[in-house]
Amino acid sequence: MTVVPANEPPVGGDAVAGRIQVLARLLRGHGVDVSLSELLDAHHAVAAIDLGSRSLLRTVLRATLVKHAAQLDVFDACFDRAFPHRASVSSAANPSSEGDAAARLATGDELAVLAADLVDQHGGMDGELRGEKHHIQRVYRGADLAKMMSDARKADPSVTPDQLRRQIDELKKLIAADIRSQLGPPDVDAVDGELQDLDFLNASRAELDQLRSTVRPLARRLATRLARRRRLRRDGRVNMRRTLRRSLSNGGVPLHVASERPKAHRPELFVLCDISGSMADVSLFTLTLVSALSSELARTRSFVFVDAIDEITALLARTEHGIEPGQILRNTDVIGETGHSDYGTVLRQFWDEVGERELRPTSTVVITGDARNNHHPTQAAVLADIARRCRRIYWFNPEPIADWGTEDSEMRAYGDHCSDVFEVRNLRQLVDCVEQIL
Q: Which of 56, 155, 293, 360 is the one with CA 20 to 30 A from 193?
């Protein structure tokens, strides 16, 4: 086996320019805005460094092409695709023994070689290629990293647990990078079709975790599309007065038509999400998607509720929108008297504390929930008050339309006061709905 050490150049000098173009294309496809000036800066910066260091190349390109900390994970994944760290792998004819693996982990030497060995032995890369996470989990299960740490401690008792944990973290990064390099550049315009159509309410915990990792790249891509459309909508109706004034210099012939410049509408969004039971994960997808689009919105305020409502706008900002459902429950006051969903009480509280003072004709309200009210009073009249005060109300319901209005579902009563009600049972429907209302 031959593996490129971490300090060797990934490609020749002339080929680096082409690889940078590939990297830029991947970043743009994943919603990272890379301008021409930034691309030129990257080329100039790379020309000034020693291409013998892959880590230095990564640092320089990250510094010139990435503007926000939230984009670093996307950059790392795209960099490993554009600049694979493994030059060639003949075969796993002589895989590392358990003793070799423990020694390498204990010393921290040749971790890239160890990562490549583990991928060859356990990654399943010689069979049907699937998603990156699938192959990474195969390596983790097959390699048994916990046992490797134990063997490394036995091989070298002087190694501290903290050192081993750092080396395990580095090994995981190298395993992921090796798998990404073998999978090749992804189709940046597509997300796994089965994953997009997976029913939120019937998904397993592992499938929900996969969905969560998919939402943010999709959101960044959607934000890029919305921004591009907004820039392209430059011209509106013909301005006759300006057109006639311009035509005077041409003998009255309107050679240059003047158009109005329409004022782009940037919605002010209020998002209310039910986080009781199975609704917690669905609501989190909505919050993640909307928060990633904040640059295209005039203002966004996010609220969560069970039978009481609490605002989490600041909490989402502090955690860079990477919060888990359990963290939301621990850091908010959303449990009222019963601890069961009570949409009527929540709507009344929102109206009294926020809506009556803050809602304006430019405001849009989005509610995510199944509208199952546990037979409490609906207080639909309060929703009617909210509808009169704001521009639009949209309701995202993850249940099938056939279940709306059955048992304790009050979707029919609430739907009468909404501008539109959407069945949002999967990620594809959620993205389509958000794109439509914005």
A: 293
CA nearest to 277, candidates 138, 367, 372: 372
Q: What are the Cα distances from residue 289, in Å, to 268, 284, 292?
A: 15, 8, 5
Residue 345's alpha-carbon distances to 274, 302, 304, 405, in angstroms, are: 13, 18, 13, 19
Angstrom distance (rounded) from CA 223 to CA 431 = 11
| Sign of the torsion angle spanned by Cα atoms 77, 293, 344, 371 | negative
One-character DSSP codes across 255-297: -S--B--PPPP--EEEEEEE-STTHHHHHHHHHHHHHTTGGGS
Measured in degrees and rounded to the nearest 5, phi and psi for residue 396 equal -105, 120
> At residue 414, what is the residue type?
Y
Could you report how far apart the first and last alpha carbons of the chain are, in Å? 52
Given the structure tokens 């809602």, which residue do they identify? Answer: 359
3-class DSSP assignment, residue 110: coil
Q: Rounded to 5 degrees, what angle do the CA atoms 287, 289, 293 make?
A: 110
Q: What is the pTM of this model?
A: 0.56
pLDDT tens for the chain, 438 residues: list them: 333 333 333 444 557 888 888 888 888 777 677 888 888 999 999 888 887 777 888 899 999 998 887 678 778 878 877 776 654 333 344 455 666 777 778 777 778 778 888 888 888 876 666 667 788 888 888 888 888 888 888 888 888 888 888 888 888 888 887 787 776 555 444 455 567 788 888 888 777 777 777 776 677 677 766 666 665 555 556 778 888 888 787 777 776 777 766 555 566 889 999 998 878 888 888 887 777 666 667 688 999 999 999 998 888 877 765 666 677 778 888 898 888 999 999 999 999 999 999 999 989 999 999 999 999 999 999 999 999 999 999 999 999 999 999 999 999 999 999 999 999 998 888 888 887 777
C-beta atoms surrounding 294 within 10 Å:
18
